[in-house]
Amino acid sequence: MAKVKVPRRTRMVRWLIVLFSATLLLSGVFLGGVYFYGRHTPIIPTEKFDLVFKTLSKKYYDQTFRGYNWKAVGQTFRAKVPKEDPNDTALTDILNNQLFPLLETSHLEYVPAWLAKPSQQSGQVRLGIILPELREMAGLILIDAKPPTKAVLLHVESGSFLDKQGIRPGLPIDIDVSAASELTSSVTHRVSITYNASMPDGTARKLNTEVPVGSPDAPLPYTDKAKQQIIVSRLDDASIDALQNLFNDPSVAHYTVAYLPCGLTTSIALPGKPSSVINVVKDSPADQAGIEPGSSIVALKTGLLALNKAHVSLEALLPSGIKKTLDTTYEGDLQSVSKPFSEERSALMDGPVLILRFNQFNDDNARWLDRQLRQHQPSAIVLDLRYNSGGGQVAMQKILAEFLPSGTPIATLKNATEQTRLLVPPGAQPLESRLVVLIGPASSSAAEVTASVLKHYSRAKLVGLPTAGDVMSASSLTFRDGSILQIPVATVLDPSGVNLERVGVTPDIIQQNTLADIRRGRDAPLECAKSLLAGTTCP
């Protein structure tokens, strides 16, 4: 056979192709090795703290950081981070239980790699990722405790006592109004003001002054809806009692307080909330102990005896004020946080009523809900959001498009520099079916915005209990070891301009299952919803 001579130019092209292919292969191997090494190489604790703090400092929605000297705060807490920290145990405590609480906001959480779920590892902007802090324990379904928030000084009147002391707005402040002392005139009250200076070590200035009680003809604290303020024009016992009652009113939780006698304006200091029981599993140890939904947990001790075997001892204060105790060993996890709830969804036709329950706002659930509505074409719908912890903004917009015309304002997202309006997207033909939405203390973020929007436009009646008040637009960042930082990047204002954070959504009809309902297999809020859709009153 004659030997075929390959032209030199062709040989050179072949060699170049081989060389290029080998280079690509080696580059792929190298980059893959770098990625594998990066994903499996621990980040030293101080480096991880620096990454978290830098990200938070750059992306946090409120760049005033509640008035704290944020750089000094970072230096203080960084000094607490140990050199070695298996599973990020110490770092997680420093961030979640010490640093982040200074900002008193929801949607701010660090999740170590060993706890992070693949579904959380997304940079998508959301209205709820890790919330709510929900757990099931010995048949109790609990919402974890919420700490109190302090008031923040917003305004100081020029020439006032605080102004002369050099006190300026921006930082947390405690105000204690006491009765007139024996050494003062009966027309004055002693006001003790503890001003938290911009030092992360907790140092504070305590100032005392005496201010006039005010004219007896001056009104008690009253609300100015136009300014969204509570006005305090005099400081006597009756005024302080009235002010305390207003502080417990969730409808004014987003207002500010103008203390006219003191010459200052503050945000409202909100009380903390203990862990509360939102449901009880029938025939469980909690049921047998007689613990009612709506109870507060006043004492709790837990322990893991073995794998999937736990012991819990607690004291619960029933809504009636009676105390009940529970001490049991049971098969189960101590913290089934969100897992059985977030992944559940169901659709049921009950006569003419389609009952839809889904516990996360995501694209899959948005498509599922659309299929259910188009398949059944119901004349009446119950949307059960009692265990819905929120989710993606886009999914929320798609779901609201099922019930509201395109272009309808949903919310305003407000960060440190700008505002963005969320609208119902075009493309869908909204249903005209009658609608009732079920909500409760576990409803948070996108679920709260959805309920608020449907209520605002009189598109649905809301039944159940007030929602969690955990409403922020958040984004998440996944570090190379798989750990996650969730950051609130914007506040969320409802269509009327109200910030729902720490306020939540109040239903049109308050309804909750009792323990007697649970034992009878009755769902009172759902029955109420079906009665409303049938044109009758709740049973």
From TrEMBL:
Lineage: superkingdom: Bacteria
Membrane-spanning intervals of the chain: 12-38
Phosphoprotein is among the record's keywords: no
Domain Tail specific protease: 318-512
Assigned keywords, A-Z: Membrane, Transmembrane, Transmembrane helix
Gene3D superfamilies named among the record's database cross-references: 2-enoyl-CoA Hydratase, Chain A, domain 1, 3.30.750.44
InterPro entries xrefs: ClpP/crotonase-like_dom_sf (IPR029045), Tail-specific_protease (IPR005151), Tricorn_C1 (IPR028204)
Keyword Cell membrane: no
A Pfam family that the UniProt record links to this protein: Peptidase_S41
Protein name: Tail specific protease domain-containing protein
Species classification: Bacteria, Pseudomonadati, Pseudomonadota, Gammaproteobacteria, Lysobacterales
